[in-house]
Amino acid sequence: MSAPIKPLTQNFAVAPQLGPDDMADVAAAGYKSVIINRPDFEGGPDQPTAADVSKAAQAAGLQIEYQPVVGSAMTAADVQRFAELLRTLPGPVLAYCRTGTRCTSLFAAAQQLG
Questions:
Q1: Burial degree of 94 (CB within 10 A; 0-12, 13-18, 19+)
Q2: Residue 85 lies in a domain
Q3: 12-15 and 6-9: which strand pairing?
Q4: What was the pLDDT predicted at 114?
Q5: In degrees to the nearest 10, what's the CA dihedral of 114, 65, 106, 25?
Q6: Are 33 and 64 in contact (CB under 8 A)?
Q7: What is the spatial distance between Cα 104 and Cα 23, in angstroms, rounded to a whole number?
């Protein structure tokens, strides 16, 4: 896998941009679900789309959720949705965005919801 996975807890990790080719490796690493927090085309036309990654994730047996969040405009609704995904998706869960920072911020904010 090209991108480094950074575990934050036993059941949750973040990563920078992943692509369809990474999904089999994510599944092989033991993850059950993936959350995509990077909006499509945020990085331009060369960025893998959520649809392409989702298709590969499903083929690898992963649950997948596309929750695009603009890093500079994160809302309370974004945090609530992320917290709900963490509660309902099978773990361990891997979330990715451009660098992993946005997912880390969402996770930290979701923990504050209790």
A1: buried
A2: yes
A3: antiparallel
A4: 64
A5: 110
A6: yes
A7: 20
Percent of the chain with pLDDT over 90: 93
Establish if 22 belongs to a structural domain: yes
Cα 46 from chain centre:
19
pLDDT of 75 higher than 70? yes
Residues 6+ apart with CB under 8 A from 23: 34, 53, 56, 57, 59, 60, 62
- The answer to whether 82 touches 2, Cβ cutoff 8 Å, is no
What are the DSSP E strand ranges found in 1-114? 6-9, 12-15, 33-36, 63-66, 93-96
Give me the domain span that covers residue 27. 6-111
Q: Is residue 1 part of a domain?
A: no
pLDDT in tens, 16-52: 999 999 999 999 999 999 999 999 999 999 999 999 9
Number of domains into which the chain is organized: 1
Q: Is the pTM of this model over 0.85?
A: yes
Residue 60 belongs to some domain of the structure: yes
